[in-house]
Structures
1.
Amino acid sequence: MNIETPKGKQPETHIEAKGFSIFYGTQEAVKRVDMSIPKGAVTAIIGPSGCGKSTFLRAVNRMNDLIPNCRAAGELLVDGLNVYDAGIDASVLRRRVGMVFQKPNPFPKSIYDNVAYGPRLHQSYAKRELDAVVEESLRGAALWDEVKDRLNKNALGLSGGQAQRLCLARALAVNPEILLMDEPTSALDPKSTSRIEELIVQLKGRYTIAIVTHNMQQAARISDVTAFFYEGVMVEFDATSQLFTRPKEKRTEDYITGRFG
Amino acid sequence: MTMWKRKLLDRLFSGSAYGAIAVMAFFLVIVIGPIFLKGIGAYLFEGTIDYRRMMLNQFNRGDEQVLDVEWAEVKQERKIIYDALFAFEKELDNMSSSRRRELKPAFKQTKEAVAILLGPEPGTPLPALPRRLYGQTRWERAELKAKDVLFEESWDYSGAQGKKVMTPRAPLFKGTALEPLFSKVEKDLESLMRPERTFYPQFLTDKSIDAHFFGGIGPEVMGTIYLALGAMLIAVPLGVIAAIYFQEYAKEGFVFSLLRSCVNTLAGVPSVVFGLFGLAFFINTLRVSPGKSVVAGALTLALLVLPTVIRAAEEAIASVPHTYKEAALSLGAGKWRTILTVILPAALPGILTGIVISMGRAAGETAPIIFTAAVSVGPIVLPSEIFTTSTPALSWNLYNICTEHEAVDEIRHVQYGMALTLVMIVLALNTLAIVLRAKVSRKLKG
């Protein structure tokens, strides 16, 4: 696999799946996936609805634990440690693996408290330090200038695009290494979408980003590598430029040319 | 379906909805209206000179000097009555025995009626009961009692049904020394009683004197507050924790459905059974108190409202969007942290509503406290005595003074006043629930 990185060398793997499967009861939603997500790059996961791409993404920070009867098999390694090992504390894992959801889901608290929620969980800050973390996170999500005068206003008053950027800032505030994004723009208008996309490109490098998207143009625009999932199987995984121009698999080609999905 | 049919159905539906609301409002007016109108009489009424004397003696309220002047004037007026009684008694001794036999019983009745209207005759030994120490304290009662002086009440059983006959006494005593008494009472009752518009807000907080003949309903109000607050202090933490368990921790299965049906059954148990259970369990078995006590009553009431609190809290927790929980967990919050910092704050409006409505219920329940906490007469219970002392409470004492009081007719104003106060407390609590809910959800919505 050939991925173009600024330094021109093969990047190290950050998340690695080895024969990784997820079952809902007896149904196998993700089937023996092998995949290496490179560090500091944007990895897009595309595929038709119900192909298991979101399930796979939500396995990385163990959000699937919330679903009863959901279990995993095989290995899913983050920095070489299997996240489904008995010794792994999901809360600790989730600090390192942040997530932005499909629908903006700010807490019904003030903008400040939303961003400060994560930092407050993990250590006690002096007021000044916390202010700095909040400002930095909001700047990171390109929201600071819009909300700096109303940090104490309720976050539910924000527009959809602002709310999604707030959720991004909230995730950034705990200083994760990996950002998972589950269709982060599907509920947003085109303008807000492009702002989020710009942000993703800006954040690349500092964070390893994995994004599930329905929007193939979006995947082509912002990702370095792309995985195509179909019926729980990872069909193809390659550099984005490669996958969208010269797909190796027939099913990939059919999907990206819009013959199904 | 054709257009006009759909429109007609639409009209019918909205019509029946308005109808239902109108019926509800109508019954509300029918029920609350009289309670309000009559209950307000406990707080706002025409008080007589005897009311003011009673207030000064028993509660040390009012201006003593002003009252002394007024009392001297009234005594002058009343002297006519007492002089007539005294003169007639003398006259009676000099009458023929047949005439005496004719007049003596009527005279005795008149004298007794006067003592009830105006209080004990000056110079006679003071009666033991406080209710006999004063004349009528309320003008409308005075008017009623004046009738007992003026008329002889008898029953005519000649028809199919007994009929009350009121015969004036004045003609009987025509030409005697007693005659001026009747004309004075009939024509000049006001100068005998001196009615004055009186506002008595302390009705809410005063102790009662001589089983509610005088004074207020302070012990009852305090008892109700103790019991309702105490019940909530016990039921709310338990209920909210149970709701969290059901919603966030319990796994579907035998134990879960067993617990569920236990809670649902608890909600359907008649309240008197709770009362008996409270007596048997809290007092006789656990011995939380030597006998009836505020704490035993609060525990019993807590048990009674527990299902309501659990259900309200459960519904509130279930309606918190799943995405809040996901967001908190994805930031590395543990389950308990998520519940404390995100789920409970978001569920607060619903939980609060459940709490306040349950509190209204606890304030109004009668049967559970009969066996565990209530007593018909008693002083205001001090916070230090809640483990040992039983207390009067509005709900039970309202029933008590309406049915088991020795003179239910004499204290109508207290009965209605108590009913009004209870209704107002419950209504205020429900209003508080609405306001709190609106306030908290506005805060959550931004």
Note: The interface with chain A takes residues 321, 323-334, 337, 341-342, 345-346, 443-446 of chain B (CB under 8 Å).
2.
Amino acid sequence: MKRSTLWGWFVAIAVTALSGATLAQAPVEISFYYPVAVGGPITKLIDQFAADFEKENPGIKVKPIYSGSYQESITKALTAVKSNDAPTTSVLLSTDMFTLIDEEAIVPFDPLIKTPEDEAWLKGFYPAFMENSQTGGKTWGIPFQRSTIVLYYNKEMFKDAGLDPNRPPATWKEMAEHAQKLTKRDASGKVTQWGVQIPSSGFPYWLFQGLTTENDVQLMNAAGTETYYDKPAVIEALQYWMDLTSKYKVHPEGIVEWGTTPKDFFERKVAMIWTTTGNLTNVKNNAKFDFGVAMLPANKRRGSPTGGGNFYLFKQAKPEQQAAAFKFIKWITSPARAAQWGIDTGYVAVRPDAWATPVMRKYVAEFPPAAVARDQLQYAVAELSTHDNQRVTKALNDGLQAGLTGTKSAEQAMKDSQREAERLLRPYRK
Amino acid sequence: MTRSAQWLYGWLLLLPAAVLLALFTHYPAVATLWHSFRSTPKGSRASTFVGVDNYAQLIDDPIFWQSLTNNLWFALGTIPLSIALALLMAVWVNGKIAGRGFLRLAYFTPTVLPMIAVANIWLFFYTPEYGLLEQITGAFGLPAHNWLGSKNSALPALMVVTVWKEAGFFMIFYLAALQQMSPQLAEAAAIEGASRAYFFRRVTLPLLMPTTLFVLVNAVINAFRLVDHVVVMTRGGPDNATELLLYYIYEIGFRFWDSAYAAALTMVLLLLLGVVALLQFWFLERKVHYQ
């Protein structure tokens, strides 16, 4: 190409780029990472939220970026922070709060909450969800897609086994007994239908927390500096889970995959499953049989951990971006939208006034299972959250998987996990 | 051109390659070594010199030893098998058989698929209850098995996926080398009355030695490099049964952000691969006949 033509192209591109840059300065652009941990058209719903918000707020552009699972999202967010390319806000696990604070990645919401309406908005969330969102007197996360674990059960299989389809198991003993009646084997002794399935891949600690809460024991302290993995009640809870496979023979051997557990339920391979209420709409759309949703069975008490993601505000975002993001977060957690999100996914709408909206009341009247997770909130506890959270929970995950695959006894597995957790948390106890 | 101009010209020609090499190979290696002797910076707490602390932590870490053992078993399981399979397939499709082109395509397809796609496909194969393997074994009346969910079968399951993917790639190299062999050799052997097996052992294999060396180096690198299927299929579980060294480094470095410890682990991996490469070239150099 001739020299002059080359220069001509260069000038043209430079001018376009510069003018484009000046044009782009007008709207404030906020980006946010969001994970998908449940089935259903989540990406479409998020994109729809972004589009609706942009329509109501022409000066703000919202860019949602899908970032995988919760664990992948925190990795992606921290990588972005370390390369000075952080998003404005993100939906990340509520339990990653301490890690994000230690990495100096986020700022608390308190400086942005100035007006009385904002303060009323902040007070309007369920206290159970705020437990993993506040520390040191400051609010670091705003609840968005929060859940508890629930028990889904196949009512047709209950009827076939001679059980009352409207009486789901209420205690550990009942669950084991029901499961024994619901486990079917073929002529060669191979199981064609399991009684109960509790997933143990990826993050078994969350489902395990259901069992420990029901056994009336806590796994960590509120400050996130101590863990109690080797308490006798915790070991008992793991022993019950292992007994479902070895003693009662109603639970598949080895590690049960989280992602395929709902599908196992649809394919009638299992009668009862433990999974997040966030899968409720997915189950409703895909289960071609009558199913029920129940609170988790009690041992010493009812219980479940809360779960799911909060919105966090990143330190590297500019002040006008932070203000725009705060507006978006307030908008998306307003009663109407929280209700809509709850209906579309099955996540628990994070504020009581969202449940009082007409559209939500109607939905619950037609579909009572939607309210089970919310009713379980009175028995819910904070999810396992400590400093260096990913690593401390990995210590517990490894121990649980060792127990469930039969490599270690329940006591040995939990003692080893506790030792590893102590080593990791020691520097944070000063 | 004057001497100095020539010298400058030479260096300018080398510059792009040298810059890339320095930037992406030498600088990271030296930087990693430096970081492995310091602590991890956390937030506003800068990193400090801690000597061999990270290496001491490494020696005490049971998960590191587990990942090293896993990786060595993984290498042992995948390298000989994929090379042998590649050689066998290459010899078979080299001959004049019907449908040869289609067969070559079939063998090479696993290679062109991205590893993430392959891992997801095999995830379905291995799914208990209604995965493909379960359906096949069920049809034969064999008992059900949770391949990826039990400690003794998870790593072999991943090895199968790797061999399936790699064998086609190595087959291409062997096929090219086989086709370069002079047909006169085969004719001479036939005249002398040598059997096919004798010909293969005493003529074909030695002549394929350069290719075998190349394939072996690649296979060793891949045994330590390929962790995509671990990410998709097992995430290191159950209980670190499929924790490979590179995946462990990724977990420490990017999930837990303990960058100093990850640097120490990386130095170990670097040392291991360096030693293996040296052994390979020194030992096999004697056996390789270049034409």
Note: The first helix of chain A runs from residue 3 to 24.
